Amino acid sequence: MTLTYFGQSCFQVDVQGKKILFDPFISGNPLATNISADSIEADFIFVSHGHNDHVADLISIAQRTKATVVCAAEIAGWLGGKGVENVLMMNHGGYINFPFGKVRGVSAIHSSTMPDGASGGNPMGFVFSTPEGDFYYAGDTALTMDMQLIPLWANLKFSVMPIGGHFTMDAVDAIHATGFVKCDTVVGVHYDTFGYITIDKAQALADFEKAGKKLLLPAIGETISL
User: Fold this and answer.
1) Are the C-beta atoms of residues 157 and 183 closer than 8 Å to each other?
2) pTM of the model
């Protein structure tokens, strides 16, 4: 299983021969000028919520790749009005089966409004169970006790968590979250893109190490094996 980071909360996991893209925001990211959204391929696109820094390139990538977009019903309706037809609605609940494994939508403590002001429904995280290992994408979220439920459903190989603070968890809260989800390896996202969420990366790495945890901060465009 590999993970490629495209900046902010946009990343791609390659598993079981499928390319799974998350929260596509590339063209509006000043830190991702070396990445072309037009070069990204996807079989599935998972959308955690409707904010612009998670959906800016969603329509163009979905229409070009014909990927299945998995998202809240409200986002699915919004996409339908934009001409995107290959959409699967999801909400918090039981697992849904996919060719690469199964996925459960879980709680994220945040908000969700589309760029034009339409409702984005409930923000979500996702728990993936695959033959190559289980992983959790928290989406944009505060630290929440609901994370303690995740080990009931998955034995996580890694988690993808926001660490930028201000609008989401910071690195210290993400360390607490590792205990809730019982997974010591975190890929950090949602940091440095703009002023509110600029972090001291060296300090975050040191804090994780001191806690006996592992924080991975791949460069934009970098692919790592997990």
Assistant:
1) yes
2) 0.98
70 vs 39: CA distance, rounded Å: 21
Per-residue model confidence as pLDDT tens digits over 139-169:
999 999 999 999 999 999 999 999 999 999 9
Please tell me whether residue 111 adopts helix, strand or coil conformation: coil
Check: CB of residue 150 under 8 Å from CB of residue 106: yes
Model pLDDT, residue 202: 98
Helix 201-210 crosses helix 171-181 at what angle (to 10 degrees)?
A: 30
For the chain, which residues make up each domain, given as ranges? 2-225
Gap between the Cα atoms of 54 and 97, Å rounded: 24
Give the separation between CA 187 and CA 198, rounded to whole angstroms. Answer: 16
Fold of 2-225: Metallo-beta-lactamase; Chain A (3.60.15)
* Count of beta carbons in the 10 Å neighbourhood of residue 143: 19
Encoded amino acid at 170, one letter: D
61-71 pLDDT tens trace? 999 999 999 99
User: Under 8 Å CB-to-CB from 116, ≥6 apart: which residues?
Assistant: none
Residue 65: its pLDDT value, please? 98
